[in-house]
Amino acid sequence: MNERWRAPVAGAPKRDTARAMSEENVEIVRGLYESWNAGDPTFERFAPDIEWDVSRWAPDLREVARGHDEVRELFRRFLGMWDELHFEPHRFVEGGDHVVVSLTVRTRGRASGVPATIETAHVFTLRDGLLASHVQYPNLDEALEAAGLSEC
Asked: Which of 30, 35, 94, 139 could make an S-S bridge to 40, C-beta 3.0–4.6 Å?
């Protein structure tokens, strides 16, 4: 008999699939920051129809970039403003398909050389192990509320 079609053994612990998926999503997002800090934009982790929204945080950038080409252009414009860029995630809150991250972004302006430290929050939505959307918020409370996790 094929192993994958066997009935579960009575009394065997049930796997909490939703919890395992949430933990996997957190690890995917954690890896994203590690890759970014190493200079890798990680497009292979993005769904082809990804939506990237920074309008709540940086209104002068495109409201919502859709798909790899538009997100690449957004990254090019954003990264062009900075000599250095380092992400320091502090807290990961998972809920279903969402991962909310509070973080500090440390950067230095390309033209001015002035360092900046920015506290912000990201909401990622994952689908089939890929990033389907990213929305940046000015603070963790707004991000949690948007993800329906405000009571966390």
From this structure: 35
